[in-house]
Amino acid sequence: MNLEQYIPREHGAWAMWIVPMLSAVLVTHFSLSFLLLFLCFALLYVAHHPIVMLAKRGGNVRTGEKKFVVVVAVPALVIGTALIVIYNLPWLALFGMLELALFIFSVKAFVGKEQRTFTNELTIVAALTLSAPASYYTITHVVDGKAVMLYILNFLFFGSSVFYVKMIIEFLRTKGFWRGEAEKARSMTIAYHAALVAVILLMSIMKSVNNLVLLGFLPMLVQVAVGVFSKNTRVNFTRLGVALIVQSVVFLAAVGFFWK
Questions:
Q1: What is the pLDDT of residue 17?
Q2: Using CA atoms, how far apart are residues 209 and 194, in angstroms rounded to an integer?
Q3: 70 and 111 part of one domain
Q4: Inter-residue contact 241 to 10 (CB < 8 Å)
Q5: CB–CB of 99/130 below 8 Å?
Q6: Residue in 124, 129, 139, 144 with CA at minimum distance from that of residue 36
Q7: How far lies 256's CA from each of 85, 201, 251, in Å?
Q8: 117-125 contact pairs (CB < 8 A, 24+)
Q9: Would the CA dihedral through 224, 226, 230, 236 be positive or negative?
Q10: How far, in Å, CA of 201 to CA of 68, rounded?
């Protein structure tokens, strides 16, 4: 069984669950329970693609895919159960149920060839960024306002890429004209980021988080502002992916340095 063929290669999606988990560590501390949760998330994440393939094929399945799902999913469930029982983390079961519900929704969307819709992609972001409050709870044994703020910040940050990338793709399809689906995508991108800025300003006014943490959104907002008025019909998606990863690092650094 060639395990490498089943490993997801979408670097942005990896960042969507790893960065939120690390942000929880940065505002709390490292622990063995966190390390176990990280491993659990990693195993479940790599199980997503082969499970989608199995669901798409129905009865016509490949033995390798079934074996791979068993190899990664069973240890993940054992680790998750051990965390709940050994570390006395009952609320982790709730996080698990939420993840499962979002996971099933996502698999159905892939099977129905609706994986590129805003709804499904935002559902994936919501599922992956749940790793932030789940990690925070695993480390601290509490779910408080800080856990909620971590989730909101991570969801808003990674949700941005969904709208931005969709806007760029639709713009390229119309060969450099803001019309039809491209104009609709741009309007949705502007609306999302206007709401994002409003939430950030509200957090700042209410002193929910240190204002300097919000600097982590600046590179992303600049990129979106440039893209909204872009006339460029050539986009290097490799560079775009690298840019999104760099922005994630900046966001994580802002959380790590300025949260407390």
A1: 94
A2: 19
A3: yes
A4: no
A5: yes
A6: 139
A7: 30, 20, 9
A8: 118/162, 118/163, 118/166, 118/188, 121/162, 121/166, 122/159, 122/162, 124/13, 124/16, 125/16, 125/155, 125/158, 125/159, 125/162
A9: negative
A10: 46
| Secondary structure letter of residue 56 according to DSSP | H
Could you tell me if 45 and 107 are in contact, meaning their C-beta atoms sit under 8 angstroms apart?
no
- For residue 196, what are the domain limits? 144-260
- CA dist 103 and 128 (Å) reads 10
Q: Which residue has the tokens 């957090």?
A: 203
Q: What's the total number of domains in the chain?
A: 2
Tell me which of 235 and 188 has the higher pLDDT. 188
Judge whether 109 and 123 are in contact, CB under 8 Å.
yes
Tokens 């790893």 correspond to what residue?
Answer: 18
Residue 231 pLDDT > 70, yes or no? yes
Q: Which two tokens stand for residue 242?
A: 């690298």
Whole-angstrom Cα distance, residue 220 to residue 164? Answer: 10
Which strand (E) or helix (H) includes residue 32? helix 32-57
**Listed residues 111, 142, 173: the one ending a domain:** 142
Burial environment of residue 88 by CB neighbours within 10 A (0 to 12, 13 to 18, 19 or more): exposed
Widest distance between CA atoms in the chain? 58
When comparing pLDDT for 237 and 214, which is higher?
A: 214
Q: How confident is the model at residue 67 (pLDDT cuts 50, 70, 90)?
A: confident
Same domain, 83 and 24: yes
Quote the pLDDT of residue 63.
63
